Structure formats: C-alpha cells, structure tokens
Amino acid sequence: MIRCCIFDLDGTLLNTLDALTYTTNLTLKEFGYGPVDPEHIKQFVGDGYRMQVKRALQYSGDRELLHYEEALSAYMRLFAEHCLYHVRPYEGIPELLEALKAQGIRIAVLSNKPHARTVENIEAVFGKGYFDIVAGQKDDVPKKPDPAGVNRILEQFGCSSEECLYFGDTNTDMQTGLNAKAHTVGVTWGFRDRAELEAFHPDFVIDAPKMVTEHILASFS
C-alpha cells in the first residue's frame, strides 16, 4: 500500500525552465557571456545550483572557471529576484495532488534547488501548508542522488520505502529513488527524455500525471 509520495520540483511538479534560463543568462551577462538556450539549460540543471552555474560557465567559454565563485554569488542574488519568473504547474499536477490528498496519502517535495527558493516556488503556486513537507537543498543534508533527503522524509512520515512513490524527471532523480529503495517513477513531461529515465530501470515511466491514479496506485491495492 502506498502511504506517501515524494516529488522532485523542477521538471516534475513545476515548469521552472523560464526562470532557470532567465536567471542563468542574467548571471552570464554580468561576466560578458552570451545567453544559453533553454534546451541546454535542461541538461545543466538537476544537480544543484553550483553544478548548474559551473556547466553554464564552461559551455559559454569560461573553461577554467575563472568567474565561478563570483558567478555563484551573482546567480543566488538574481535567483532570489526572479525564481518565480513564468513558473507554473504542469498540466494535471494540481488534480493529481488533490486526488492523493483525498486518499489520505502524504505528499512531500524534495529538491536540489536551494531550500528558500524551493519553499517560495511551492507556496507561490500551491499555497502555504499544502504539502506535508517541503525540503530544498540544505547544508546539513547531502544533495540527491544521495538518499538521505528521502530517508529523512520517510522517517518524519513514519513510512517505509516500500510505502513510498518517488517522482522525478532526470537521471539524478532515478538514482535518488533507487538509492532510497522507494518505488521510483520517471515522468516524461519534464527536462529529460524517456531514454534517460528508462536507462535506470525505474518501476514506472509515465507520460501524464493521471496515470498515477489510473494505473500505478491500483497496482498496489
């Protein structure tokens, strides 16, 4: 029986690509570099903002990362201003979350996005207190794909990994769910393609949120 669902944020619950692209390009502009297109940003994100900035700088020509530390500071300053830029939930996500809550299933967010920005995104779109737990990147918890974040949420919920569905859209997420021994669900509406998800052999790969209530939950009843 499934008692809780843990969701990645970017590319899973919310389409944040415009905000990530806009902030990254504002950062690069401060150091004289041109913009990066959204398709490359999709490949740069998922492993925390430090890796995102590193990849963007190297792609733009700063192969020695001469501006890395300055760019990290600039990105965090700019992201605090623009992290909600054009942010919206993916089609079917609000309905899925309502269905889960109606069934008494606990819901949580686990993101490699900095914690304050994770909370800001979730509360702006869904409202304060909508999710049972919202957890972004913090210094005292290893980033995904380390399972520590999932394990901490499971402990707070009083659930086992066998009672959990973990949702994500990248290879990092697939590794996270598998490392935590949760039932891992890859979603194809996010930042990466089906082939990347299937390479890690998650329990499920889905093309629409409604497949959770129509197919996945039924398989555990």
UniProtKB/TrEMBL annotation:
Q: Which InterPro entries match?
A: HAD-like_hydrolase_sf, HAD-like_sf, HAD-SF_hydro_IA, HAD-SF_hydro_IIIA, HAD_2, HAD_sf, PGP-like_dom2
The record, for NCBIfam families, names: HAD-SF-IA-v1, HAD-SF-IA-v3, HAD-SF-IIIA
The lineage's top-level taxon is Bacteria
Q: Which GO terms describe its molecular function?
A: hydrolase activity
**Pfam families (UniProt xref):** HAD_2
What is the name attached to this protein's record?
HAD family hydrolase
Q: Organism source for this protein? A: Ventrimonas faecis
Q: Which UniProt keywords apply?
A: Hydrolase
